[in-house]
Write a structure and sequence with these properties.
Elements (H helix, E strand, L loop, with lengths): L1 E13 L4 E13 L3 E5 L6 H8 L7 E6 L2 E2 L5 H7 L1 E5 L10 H11 L4 H14 L4 H4 L8 H14 L4 E5 L7 H18 L2 E5 L3 H5 L3 E6 L2 E2 L1
Helix pairs in contact: 3-4, 3-6, 4-6, 6-7
Length: about 220
């Protein structure tokens, strides 16, 4: 089932020296139950495109439809809380919260009781392969692979079924890279998530169900 449709979307921004046309008239669609990879050289527009899908930036022209609804007409804060999650290369965990508390955070924003949020957070951590010894550890105490699993568990806890990942294996060794890719594929194939991964890594891209490439702001 089609989850997101992008129609002739363009976006530009002004840096210190010039106007950058980061995304140019991109059209594509994304369906539930698939893992997509978006590849391209640095500066090709892929991370900016992901930011547009996340509702963090607004297209200058064109339309992004999420389940048929125009993203620009939606409450984008609610969209990011309830429908979509983003996982980053740098993990972006809260350093003063332990693993369970990091995963609880989006649920508490939705008004879920602390007791129930803790239970669901622990379940999510187990689902991504982390045992109880990690539950009360802080990010600096974890390996890179463990931190990324916590970040994915936090994305799962948000209850949305759209997961965007910006270079999620960029800081990981090859073994952890493989494990994280398998985890993301499992969310798509077994739990019907829409997973979109921005990556420069051809090994990651090859494992996606659909691979798209951006060049000079265009989808090619």
């Amino acid at each position: 089932m089609e989850k997101i449709r992008v129609e002739n979307v363009s976006y530009s921004y002004q840096n210190q020296y010039q106007k950058i046309e980061a995304v140019k008239e991109v059209s594509c669609s994304f369906e539930d139950g698939n893992m997509y990879a978006i590849t391209g050289e640095s500066g090709s527009g892929k991370s900016t495109f992901l930011s547009l899908l996340a509702g963090l930036d607004r297209p200058e022209s064109g339309t992004i439809l999420v389940e048929g609804e125009n993203l620009l007409e939606m409450d984008r804060d609610a969209y990011r809380r309830k429908q979509i999650s983003v996982v980053y290369q740098a993990f972006h965990l809260f350093p003063l919260l332990n693993a369970v508390e990091n995963v609880m955070y989006p649920m508490e924003l939705q008004g879920i009781s602390r007791r129930e949020a803790r239970k669901q957070a622990e379940d999510c951590l187990r689902e991504v392969g982390l045992g109880e010894k990690i539950f009360h550890q802080y990010p600096k105490m974890m390996s890179g692979g463990e931190q990324q699993r916590v970040a994915i568990a936090r994305a799962m806890a948000a209850q949305g079924r759209i997961l965007l990942a910006d270079e999620p294996t960029g800081n990981l060794d090859s073994e952890n890279e493989e494990n994280i890719v398998e985890l993301l594929k499992g969310l798509a194939h077994e739990r019907d998530y829409l997973v979109i991964v921005v990556t420069h890594n051809p090994e990651v891209a090859r494992q996606a169900d659909v691979c798209l490439k951006m060049k000079d702001g265009r989808m090619v």
